[in-house]
Amino acid sequence: MEEGDRRTGSSGSNGPFYRELGRVFVYYNKHLGRLHQNLRETKRFFRDIKHTYSGGSDSDIRAADLGQLQCISFPRQEEEYLKLTVRCRPCIFVLGQNCSARGRVVNTLLGDQLLPTSVQCDPETCKRRRIRFRHGKQTLVSLALPEQYELVHQLVAHQGKWDTIPEEDLEVPEDEEDPAHRLAELEVTLPHQLLQEVDIVVSPCRGSQTLTSTLEDYIDHVQSVVVYAVSEDLLTNQDEEELTDIKEKYKLPLFFLRTTPPKGKIISGPDAGRSALCEQLTELGYLKRGLCSCGAAGSGSSAPSLLVEQFDKLRQLCSFSRQVLQMHLVDAAMVLNMVHSRCLDLFINQAFDMRRDLQITPKRLEYTRQKESELYESLMRISDRKQEELKDMIIETLNSMRDQLLEDAANMDFKDIAIPQNGEPIGSQEVKSCIFQIKELIISRLNQAVVNKLISSVDYLRESFVGTLERCLRSLERSQQESASHITSNHLKQILNAAYHVEVTFNSGSTVTRMVWEQIVQIIQRITWVSPPAITPEWKRRVAQDAIESLSASKLAKSICSQFCKRLKSSHEAFASSLKQLEVGHSGRLEKTEDLWLKVRKDHAPRLARLSLESRSLQDVLLHGKPRLGRELGRGQYGVVYLCDSWGGHFPCALKSVVPPDEKHWNDLALEFHYMRSLPKHERLVDLHGSVIDYNYGGGSSIAVLLITERLHRDLYVGLKAGLPLETRLQIALDVVEGIRFLHSQGLVHRDIKLKNVLLDKKNRAKITDLGFCKPEAMMSGSIVGTPIHMAPELFSGKYDNSVDVYAFGILFWYICSGSIKLPEAFEKCSSKDHLWNNVRKGVRPERLAIFDEECWKLMEACWNGDPSQRPLLGIVQPMLQGIRDRLCYKKKSGKTLEDST
After folding, report:
1. Which of 293, 351, 743, 802 pairs as cysteine with 778 (C-beta 3.0–4.6 A)?
2. Which member of 239, 668, 752, 805 is catalytic?
3. What is the distance between the alpha carbons of residues 304 and 301, in angstroms, rounded to a whole number?
4. Which DSSP string do the residues of 354-420 spell out, in sequence order?
């Protein structure tokens, strides 16, 4: 490639319009860079999450916890869309009816006569090449295949100095046979300020390439701003076909610019003032009927198309370009923020599950141990109590069964013994076998009768205890890893069935059986024969009778109870051992779960929350711009509040400017923003309109986060100082309780309820503001936060819940009832913050004032109770407050004033 010289300065002239248009693209590229940076950090975050939880190092952690964390990933479709977006450099496409119209637009954009405009061409036969203008340090002209490589070709522009690109270089020669040279575009690099930010592509005429083909080559690689130059009064049929094609394929908004004054007549009638060209574009769907200059874009467009019918109003291309590029960035920022928010919600929900697991599992283990002990002790007591009952039951059973037993014994047929039919006697061994079989009959019948009655006496315990134990154990086992859960579950089920299915059997090795056998042996020894007996029904009946009479009911009862107790004790010990193993398994798992919970709470969620804050703030600043700071309204510990006249269609607004001093404050602020953004709107909470990150705060010395909220009249501190009637104050108290209840219903704890965080509108209705310390219980680290005089004593222990807000409301209610901002005497005497905290821990509270109503005082005392479990629920406080308000404000007695009634 050779370089040609230009007679004029190669830097080009840059008037105010070009600087303005350049600023549009500078603004776009700046924010595109921030989007790109956020996307890089987001991809790195998801890679770290995947690496951390896919290696199997946390095998003891509950599978459900790991499963949800492993599912937290960058959705492929969103990631591909965003990657494509940040790679797209902006490009101005100059389309038009003919070469002359396109050339005039380009020359005006670049401030130089680079393209010839004097020659009129026939769009159907013209063979002019596509042209691409890019930024370079030197002025160069070459032929190149788009996004591929340069072609070796001698151009006229290489042979000498030129002002305007030679016609010969713009045209494709008729005799050109090389396909590459026929398809090549003319690439022009210029050291031009505008080209630093945006490329310019000029389409050829239809005779060389269609408009849709030009767009197709670029559309996936650039962010398009499309200008369509019109030089005639009307679009031709071919123009309309091409525009229809563009609309259907790409759904792009177009900037239509007339390059020559219209010659046709202005339409009269209802559409008076609308040109014929405007009417054509309306019919094509680019403009909206009733609007001459601009209208809604066709379906799917993100910005409206625009028709400018006077060339000297080309400046409107700046606002058109800004709108097109802005909507492109807003869409990308919105997609990225949706990914952030969705995954952040998953983290917070998972933190809730892990926190619940950490709290509930030890209680379940203790409950299981306690219930099993109660069952064991109950069964042991029954066994002790049942010995006398068993004795009576055995005697009663034997008496009731005697006749049937004797009859069955007399009629029984002996197994494996040949009994002579003529009544002859048998041998001693056969006699012993007969007696043994009679004994077996008596034992089996007695066994069945006694066991059935014993089981029925303790069956209700199995129903009430064992079912509860099994359900509790199943929930504990589900928390274990699947394989371990299977083994433990089977083992515990066997123990439960063995221990508490209450079966008492007299098998051949049992104590009861041995005892009965010994008594039967004694029967045999007592029976003496002069000669072996004849086995007759009378003999069998007599043997059974002697056996029954020789049985000791008290010994049998004692033996049965002893065996029952022994079995219970053995099962109880086996159960305790198995439960201990389960507890050890849970202990190791819970340690890892707690580590994981800390990671989610202290690392993953804050890191993702900051990315979410940045992506949402980018979206807000693109849509609504940077807010203007008005006069200062107040200062807090972490920020300054300013008046802001209007922003994003809201007015007036309050603007809280926060400069986070370190990473922790950044994280806290980002999480606060996410919680506020996630909350549904509520009339008792101050609305958050949006956020903007100011990267040049204080002249560029620091970065500030600007939170824009609704502006109210004053805070409760100022209201009490000015004086508010009791009725109004009690209504404010009701409003505050309603707001806190709503926060709690969303799983959030405010942790900083105080006078200055309650704002009043012009009607003195209250809204809660400043969610700087507001967090879900599962995300709280136990840090000591809040305003000293409103802080509950358990805050200093690091273990607390949403009842700290009830305590803080109790202190706030003291101020509301006193109608003053004066510190309680008990707190005013404290010389330091530590002194005050020590007194609060010891039980010091605000004093009772003479003006306090008895019921109000009792409510305060209940709310600031030192034991969090004794504080009333806000669902109880609210109707109590309503009752107090009704009584004091609407049921005046004897003409008393509201203040007198207190």
Report:
1. 351
2. 752
3. 7
4. HHHHHHHHHHHHHHHHHHHHHHHHHHHHHHHHHHHHHHHHHHHHHHHHHHHHHHHHHHPPPTT----
More confident residue, 302 or 125: 125
Using the Cα atoms of residue 839, residue 842, residue 847 and residue 852 in order, give the sign of their dihedral. positive
CA distance 650 to 824: 39
Q: Which ranges in 260-315 belong to alpha helices (H)?
A: 276-283
Q: Can you say whether the dihedral through the CA atoms of 838, 840, 844, 846 is positive or negative?
A: positive
Which residues pair with residue 133 across a beta bridge?
Answer: 188, 200
Cα–Cα distance for residue pair 590/592, rounded to 1 Å: 5
Q: Is 632 helix (H, G, I), strand (E, B) or coil?
A: strand
Query: Full-prediction pTM beyond 0.85?
Result: no
In sequence order, the 6+-apart residues with CB closer than 8 A to the CB of 821 are: 717, 720, 721, 755, 815
- Tell me whether residue 752 is one of the annotated catalytic residues: yes
- CA angle, 520 as apex, 515 and 521 as ends, to 5°? 95
Query: What's the whole-number mean pLDDT along residues 886-895?
Result: 66
- Would strands 199-202 and 89-96 be described as parallel, antiparallel, or unpaired? parallel
Angle formed by the axes of helices 663-678 and 605-624, to 10°? 70
Is the Cβ–Cβ distance between 863 and 807 less than 8 Å? yes
Contacts of 265 (CB under 8 A, 6+ apart): 276
Rounded mean pLDDT of 157-178?
88
Q: What are the residues facing 223 on neighbouring strands?
A: 90
In the chain, % of residues over pLDDT 70:
82
Window from 281-290, 295-304, 428-437, 592-601 with minimum mean pLDDT: 295-304
Tokens of 100: 């002359």
Residues 6+ apart with CB under 8 A from 148: none
CA-based angle 85:90:91, to the nearest 5?
130
Tokens 């209201």 appear where?
Answer: 719
pLDDT, tens digit, for every residue of 436-491?
A: 888 778 777 777 777 666 666 555 555 556 666 677 777 776 665 544 444 555 55
- Can you spell out the DSSP letters for 74-131? --HHHHHHHHHHHH-EEEEEEEESSHHHHHHHHHHHHTS--S--SS---TTT--BPPE
Side chain identity, residue 407:
E
Which among 198, 216, 193 is positioned nearest to 32, based on CA atoms?
198
Phi-psi region of 164 (alpha: psi -120 to 50; beta: other; left: phi over 0): beta
Between CA 109 and CA 104 the distance in angstroms is 9
Q: Check whether 731 has a pLDDT greater than 90.
A: yes
Rounded distance, CA 26 to CA 32, Å? 10
> Which are the contacts of 857, defined by CB distance < 8 A and separation ≥ 6?
848
Are 417 and 434 within 8 A, CB to CB? yes
Main-chain phi, psi angles of 183, to 5 degrees: -90, -15
Encode pLDDT of 119-152 as tens digits.
778 888 888 999 999 999 999 999 998 767 788 7
